Amino acid sequence: MSDQQIPATPDNGDWRQVRRADDKRKRLGAHSRAIDRGAIGQAIPGTSREGRFIRTYERLLTEHIGSQPSIAQRLMITRCARIALHLEKLDEAVFKAGHALTQHDFQHYCAWSNCLARLLDKLGLEPPAGRQAPRLDDYIRSTRTEARP
Fold this sequence. Notes:
54% of the residues lie in helices and 0% in strands. It is mostly helical.
């Protein structure tokens, strides 16, 4: 059923937003297949909120890996970004609605969360060798010298 066919009323407990009749945009939900299909340009518009989320997530993971990721790492990064979007959409729905997850959503949430944790573990939690994280005292010292004229 589309969102237009289901009125959101307190009586039926449906928390989904009712869309205007002239609203032709596709909405992505937590279980949307569009998240898993194709490249970002085909399935998810790059300028949409979801598209920006995926691109930012991929960029952050690529920076974490450092240098040029291998094809296997690139595929894992893409999968991580898409799974993170599924989780983000579920989080958003729960926090906006103020309801607990349904059993179905809870099972998906756990599966996606565990899958994301395993993929991130395979990518590596530590930055690559040779790239050392900045120390706090070095960072503070650099910000003080930049602040002085």
